[in-house]
Specification:
By secondary structure, this protein is α/β, with parallel strands linked by helices. About 35% of the residues lie in helices and about 15% in strands. It folds into three domains: about 90 residues, Alpha-helical ferredoxin (Fumarate Reductase Iron-sulfur Protein, Chain B, domain 2); about 140 residues, FAD/NAD(P)-binding domain, CATH 3.50.50.60; about 120 residues, FAD/NAD(P)-binding domain, CATH 3.50.50. The structure holds flavin-adenine dinucleotide and iron/sulfur cluster (SF4). The site of flavin-adenine dinucleotide has 40 residues, from helix 7, helix 8, helix 11, helix 12 and helix 14.
């Protein structure tokens, strides 16, 4: 749930409006944080949103799921009470709207192709379209949005919010073509033959980092994104009892790993009726999510252990029977499970290697960084758009 107006005003008033704002360099997008908070304090919600949108085209997304590095840079962070900048951004996004992007009627300039419709591709498309270029996004999946569509669950980012961002891009003249697999159903030469002057690869990091944990190839073991994507696709498209391929966890699940994906997988597994535990492979400080998410996860009834997984155990027939794990010098314990979800992070799916040295071909987002957050991807798309505009100006 977002903030109500009263809480927003109180929180905005708590901001000391520091002469040298330490939060500012914390935001990869360079949002004028004190400026938009001041406007919220004055009740100017629409103006606050305009101020944010000068640097961030998608505040409704960041206001919900940004890891908010700005809050870690806030002067009150050391006291454990940083200003809730992300929550304030969300309020501005949800209640300051009213002015939709104007459909662009100006004749379009050179054609740019963007491969991949995650936040990096979305951001690049926004800025390139604003510069009046003719932008087409090609996306392999049925629906646009990247991991925000297929992995981040509805409970944290409603699909409706994502749809609204694409409606905004459409108004700006961005075309989105789905079900196009670059490198398979469409090759780079075809794009140049169709008159595209530049190609931006924003294909993300959709492949799991495979685990060397013993037992990780047993039946009943999944990787986090695989698990989440199947819930969003197979389960939705073929509801029970029709589908055999549906993702249905066993009565007990153990998630091994950390980061947002681990906690999303755990919470969805619980919602599917499986008694779920998380083994962090480290301490809570290394969980890779905010305290809010840790607390919410526990409140829902999921145990989160600061233990290390030693082995996924075979039931003797090739199926998972549980996870052997250990806390520091304690003796190993056995957590029973029929489903194990490994959250080991993601990596780009190889085909990018070497491509960025090609003339007219650019790359951004987690395809380049291999990791990172939504705000990093948006910042990467923005920077790539600037480089493309510069390049096209010279050609
Ligand atoms: C479960 C989960 C939860 C997360 N939660 C958070 C969070 O709370 N906060 C946060 O900041 N970050 C979170 N992240 C990370 C965040 O989703 C990523 O940092 C971000 O999506 C990266 O954006 P991107 O545009 O670079 O790539 P992606 O979002 O991966 O998008 C890449 C797109 O390219 C498409 N593509 C790939 N290959 C091709 C091809 N050959 N042809 C055409 N299209 C192609 C893919 O289908 C995909 O749509 C989470 C990630 C996961 C997995
Ligand atoms: S986009 Fe993220 S880092 Fe930037 S101000 Fe918003 S919450 Fe903070």
């Amino acid at each position: 749930m977002g903030f109500i107006k009263k809480i927003t005003q109180e929180e905005a008033r708590r901001c000391p409006q520091c002469a040298v704002a330490t939060c500012l360099p914390g935001c990869p997008l360079g949002i004028d944080i004190p400026g938009f908070i001041r406007l919220l304090r004055e009740g100017e919600t629409a103006q606050a949103l305009e101020r944010i949108k000068k640097e961030n085209p998608f505040p409704a997304i960041c206001g919900r799921i940004c890891p908010a590095p700005c809050e870690q840079a806030c002067v009150f962070h050391a006291d454990g009470e940083p200003i809730a900048i992300r929550g304030l951004e969300r309020f501005a996004a949800d209640f300051g709207a009213g002015k939709a992007e104007k459909p662009s009627l100006a004749p379009r300039g050179k054609k740019v192709a963007i491969i991949g419709s995650g936040p990096a591709g979305m951001s690049a498309a926004y800025y390139l379209a604003k510069m009046n270029l003719s932008v087409t996004i090609f996306e392999a999946a049925h629906q646009p949005g990247g991991l925000l569509r297929y992995a981040v669950p509805e409970l944290r980012l409603p699909q409706k919010v994502l749809d609204e961002q694409f409606a905004q891009l459409k108004l700006l003249g961005v075309e989105v073509q789905t079900d196009v697999v670059f490198g398979r159903t469409m090759m780079i030469d075809e794009l140049f033959m169709q008159g595209f002057s530049a190609v931006l690869l924003a294909t993300g990091a959709g492949q799991p980092k495979f685990s060397d944990l013993p037992g990780s190839s047993l039946i009943g073991v999944y990787y986090d994104v695989e698990f989440l994507e199947r819930l969003q696709t197979v389960n939705k498209e073929a509801p029970l009892p029709a589908a055999r391929r549906q993702m249905i966890p066993g009565p007990k699940t153990v998630v091994v790993g950390r980061g947002a994906a681990a906690f999303d997988a755990a919470r969805l597994s619980l919602r599917l009726g499986s008694a779920t535990q998380v083994v962090l492979n480290g301490f809570e400080e290394q969980a890779g999510v905010s305290h809010d998410i840790l607390n919410e996860t526990r409140e829902e009834g999921i145990e989160v252990h600061s233990m290390h997984a030693l082995e996924i155990v075979d039931d003797g027939n090739g199926f998972v029977s549980g996870v052997k794990c250990r806390e520091l010098d304690e003796p190993p314990i056995f957590l029973e499970a029929q489903t194990v979800i490994i959250a080991n992070g993601q990596q780009p799916n190889g085909f990018l290697k070497g491509m960025t040295s090609m003339e007219k071909v650019f790359a951004c987002g987690s395809a380049v960084t291999a990791a990172g957050s939504v705000v990093d991807a948006i910042a990467g798309g923005k920077a790539a758009a600037k480089k493309i505009v510069q390049y096209l100006g010279q050609t």
